[in-house]
Amino acid sequence: MMLRWWLSISTLLSSLTIVLVLGFLLQSSWPLIQQQGIAFIIGTEWYPFESLFGMLPALIGTIWAVALALLIALPCGVAAAILCAELLPKPLRGSVRFGMELMAGVPSVVYGLLGMWLLLPLLESQLNLLTGRTLLAAGLLLALMILPTIMVLSEDAIRAVQQSQREAAKNLGIGWDATLWRVLLPQAWPGIRVATLLATGRAMGETVAVMLVVGSIDRIPEPFYNFLQPAQTLTSRIGREMVEASVGSLHWAALLFCGLMLAVVAMGIALLSDRRRMVI
Amino acid sequence: MSLLPIQHRDALSKGMVLLFALPALLIPTTVLCYIFWQAMPVLSLSFVFGSADGIGFGVTEGVFPQLVGSLLLAVMACLIAIPFALATALYHRTYATPRQQRWLNTLFTMLQGIPPIVFGLCGLVVLVNLFAWGVSLLSGAVVLAVVVLPLLVLNTLATLERIPLAYSEAGSALGLGKGAIIWRLWLPRCWLQLLTGLLLAMARALSETAPLMFTATVFSGVVWPDSIFSPVTTLQTHIFYLAQEGNDPLVISIAWGSAAVLVLLVASFGLLARLLQKLGAH
Amino acid sequence: MFQRWFANALSGVLLAGLLVVSLPAASVTIKVAGSTTVLPILTEAAKQYRVIHPELNLTVSGGGSGMGVANIERGTIDIGMASRPLSEGEAGRIGDTTDVIPVARDAVAIAVSKAVYESGVTQLSLSQIAAIYRGEIRNWRELGGLNARILVIDKEASRGTRHVFADVVLGNPRARAAGATIVTGSNNEEQSVISRSDQAIGMLSNAWLNDRVRAIAVGEDGAAVLPTAENVAKGRYIIKRDLNILVRKHSSDEVKGFVDFLRSEQGQAIVQTVGFHAVR
After folding, report:
1. Which chains touch B (3 or more CB pairs under 8 A)?
2. Could you tell me the pLDDT band of residue A236, with boundaries at 50, 70 and 90?
3. What is the pTM of this model?
4. What stretches of chain A adopt beta strand conformation (E)?
5. Interface pTM (ipTM) of the complex?
6. Average pLDDT of the segment spanning C17-24
7. What are the beta bridge partners of residue C113?
8. Would the CB atoms of C157 and A47 count as touching at under 8 Å?
9. pLDDT score recorded for residue C1
10. Are C208 and C114 in contact (CB under 8 A)?
11. Which distant-in-sequence residues (6+ apart) come within 8 Å of A167 by Cβ?
């Protein structure tokens, strides 16, 4: 019975973490909601000194950076997965896969270095930009970061499609092309979807690398789809301002609200990608 | 597309796949090579195991204190998280009702998705300020522990679920209590996989920067932490500070060198985990 | 057997853990944090002070003047660094319990990239600089320099350097800079951006100037003043400030000792070595 008691208490404590974290975030951002309602979420100006806490610039920046990252990483990652699973000879397959798994573990601060010293000068010279610190830079870095994840998980999904399916297709005389598009990919799709969602969650929550290359200026790009301009993301804002805001002030509440938004959306994405709930 | 002969369609598709796949494979490889190429001038045994006096400006070579700091944080985080993760997974497997099991799964899947910077924020207010632990090894380790907890829980759970039910039933038929079943039947059988999960958690803890920046590390003044309430220096934050300089070519090389060391460190845990997995399969 | 091995390993780890946990803090620690402008002074001073007092431990952190003030208020640090005076609100909250002690004099240089300086832009009036930061002047050509867009670098709003800059140039320490292109944080970061660009302008502490980051003279034609040591000492350069440390009134003797060291001859020599002007 001691065992049961111990296990129950520990489980309770660890399950409480998420409740505590969410509760803390909610409680700390409450003063802001009390004072300003929720209009500030779509406010366009972030200027703490004047108590302006518009979230829109950072929201748009985050959405754009993640969207760009997915746009680039998804086709490339899935293509690499197809290459690895279907086209490469067996010995190569293992090493490519292994390399990708290693890449998936590269710390984000190293990507930050790469971004600042390799990517930014490249962007500035190739695209003739005033500054390389743009949403594009953030998007490209994030794409590089989520690429290994998408590739590894998609490859798992494609390999998981039973060999009998491929043989049946061959026996029917369907070429490689049709087998890929009409048999393998549709069946691997749930797994690829999980990979995409996980990658989205990671891209959304990435702080250090984005903070260093996005420009950190709270401004909505003009026009709104111009990703060649410096902008701000939620994580970059938190990372840069979290030590300066005095605890308990409205600024602090606003930053914690940013954190709350990130947490809620990330949790939603994580739930969607839960493999146990995968419906084929 | 369906009007083209099969050979052409095949070639077209294969070509398209190749077109998109090559950058996906080549660019990460190039990036890795670039990191090590830039780190070459600085990488040496004395770099990894030497120490610069208290860092700060005028950075000189040697990242051993940072290396140790990173490892200390990661190890402490895992040590804090393991008992809870193990207990939760064991509870899930032995005593939890199906409803509780679903709840636990949901909770930890959600926890896994939360960006680490959010934990850093909470850690800053609760641990550093409220509990008055200050910027310390302990604060950083607890924050990191929360970051790796869901990983460990889900991993341990997956490991335990692979143990066939018949095994445990045979054990109870022999009169073994739950505790004995866990200790004498389950753990000896799956400790290798549990270790693998632990190594993966270490690799993850070593690569986090944001939650540590303001809960565990300072810019200068610490070489070796003298207690768990002392701040540490880590490879991750060291690289972060250096990234903001970047005029002096020596500083740039040191930054790349530190990055290379960090990548190797994380990779070695990943490699070890992979090795253990292969061993376990036999 | 496995159990014995495991039990031994576990007890070994626990023992090691207990050892680490039970080690008391070997020495008194003085915690310093705040402005990145003052950071080099305190870092070097800490290093030298430790030689005299090896039983003391001094940790120094950046984060910005805002962070220095916030943390002194919270009580989590012993010495805060601020490169600006306290605002009204701050003075109201902590003025009674905190001493503001100047340790150096500094000028906020208006720094431009080397290419800009060499193309002829060697002096600007306050109103011209204000116009650049408000977005009214967008190209160096309009100021007699090269034909290139101006990369306007702003700082995070809580940074002391920005506070002083905005106060003198824009008229209000909390003024907005609508023409800003990107936002940087520490002096290091800003210096790095200016030196890697050919079109940038930014606000930097005097001690961060180098060959690729040049200060321009500030003032009307004929009366423009460069932030040289002499001009700063004689008060001719207008964007100037005291670099302060914030110390609680009832601090420990160790903290008081360190503060005295900073104001002593040796400490002021460090101030000058780092690149600032001593306090008389």
Report:
1. A, C
2. very high
3. 0.89
4. 46-47, 52-53
5. 0.89
6. 59
7. C213
8. yes
9. 55
10. no
11. none
Residue A182 one-letter amino acid: R
User: Which tokens belong to C42?
Assistant: 């305190």
Q: What backbone phi and psi angles, to 5 degrees, belong to B95? A: -115, -15
Please name which of B240, C5, B232, C158 lies closest in space to residue A244, comparing C-alpha atoms.
Answer: C158
Candidates A13, A76, A267; nearest CB to B24 = A76
- CA-based nearest distance B243→chain C, Å: 8
Return d(Cα A59, Cα A265) in angstroms, integer. Answer: 12
Q: Does C202 touch chain A (CB under 8 A)?
A: no
pLDDT in tens, C180-219: 999 998 888 899 999 988 899 999 988 888 888 999 998 8
Structural domains in chain A? 54-273 (1.10.3720.10)
pLDDT score for B54: 46
Is C262:C79 a contact under the CB 8 Å cutoff? no
- Nearest residue of B to residue C194, measured between CA atoms: B247
Chain B residues with beta carbon closer than 8 angstroms to that of C188: 241, 244-245
Which chain C residues have any C-beta within 8 angstroms of a chain B C-beta?
2-3, 6, 13, 17, 20-21, 23-27, 29, 31-33, 39-40, 43-44, 46-47, 57-63, 74, 76, 185-186, 188-189, 191-192, 195-196, 210, 212
Chain C CB within 8 Å of residue B53 CB: yes
Q: Dihedrals φ, ψ of C223, to 5°?
A: -120, 20
What confidence category does residue A275 fall into, taking pLDDT thresholds of 50, 70 and 90?
low
Q: DSSP characters for B78-146? A: HHHHHHHHHHHHHHHHHT--HHHHHHHHHHHHHHHHS-HHHHHHHHIIIIIIIS---SSHHHHHHHHHH
CA–CA separation, A137 and C182 (whole Å): 14
Instruction: Give mean pLDDT, residues A134-149.
Output: 94
Contacting residues for B282 by C-beta, under 8 A, at least 6 apart: none
pLDDT value at residue B53: 54
Domain coordinates in residue numbering, chain B: 58-281
Q: Which tokens go with C164? A: 């002083």
Taking contacts as CB-CB distances below 8 angstroms, the residues of chain C near B228 are 20-21, 23
**HEC string for chain B:** CCCCCHHHHHHHHHHHHHHHHHHHHHHHHHHHHHHHHHHCCCCCHHHHHCECCCECCCCCCCEHHHHHHHHHHHHHHHHHHHHHHHHHHHHHHHCCCHHHHHHHHHHHHHHHHCCHHHHHHHHHHHHHHHCCCCCCHHHHHHHHHHHHHHHHHHHHHHHHHCCCHHHHHHHHHCCCCHHHHHHHHHHHHHHHHHHHHHHHHHHHHHCCCHHHHCCCECCECCCCCCCCCCCECCHHHHHHHHHCCCCCHHHHHHHHHHHHHHHHHHHHHHHHHHHHHHHHHC
- Work out the average pLDDT over C8-24: 63
C41: which residues sit within 8 A by CB, 6+ positions away?
C103, C104, C243, C262, C270, C271, C274, C276
Nearest-5° angle of CA A80, CA A85, CA A90?
115
Any bridge partners for residue C202, and if so which?
Answer: C111
Distance between CA atoms of residues C84 and C165, nearest Å: 10
Q: What average pLDDT is seen over chain A?
A: 87
Residue B58 confidence (pLDDT): 39
pLDDT of B138:
92
pLDDT exceeds cutoff 50 at A14: yes
Q: What is the token pair recorded at B219?
A: 């810019």
CATH code assigned to B58-281: 1.10.3720.10
For the cut 90, the answer to whether the pLDDT of residue A146 exceeds it is: yes
Among C residues 35-64, those touching chain A with beta carbons less than 8 Å apart: 63-64
Judging contacts by C-beta atoms under 8 Å, the chain B residues touching residue A105 are 203-204, 207, 266-267, 270
Q: What confidence tens digit (pLDDT) does each residue in B82-108 have?
A: 999 999 998 888 888 888 888 888 889
Helix (H) or strand (E) holding C32: strand C28-34
